[in-house]
Specification:
mainly alpha; 1 helix; about 0% strand
Length: about 90
């Protein structure tokens, strides 16, 4: 930033002052609109977060069911192999 000599400053005409006030007003309105827009985007993202949590719960539930089914399948195979060994041993 460049430091200026205070002697360089001059009196601002009324039209320039009005222009500056209008510019500041537009800037503050833009900033307010930007905040509202960001807030709405944040609420939209929280909806997506909620959906992601629902999918995660569903996936976790599905994983539990798959794990249970897999354990049941393994148990059935162990029983079948045990019966086959028993029948083979009983025939001998």
């Amino acid at each position: 930033m460049i430091a200026r000599d205070p002697a360089e400053y001059r009196a601002i005409p009324a039209s320039d002052e009005r222009f500056r006030e209008d510019l500041l007003q537009e800037f503050f309105e833009f900033r307010k609109d930007a905040r509202l827009h960001l807030r709405s985007m944040d609420s939209g993202l929280s909806i997506f977060r909620g959906e992601a949590n629902a999918y995660q719960r569903t996936f976790t539930s599905a994983t539990r069911w798959m794990r249970s089914l897999l354990l049941i399948l393994i148990a059935l195979h162990i029983i079948a192999i045990g019966l086959m060994i028993y029948l083979i041993a009983a025939d001998s």
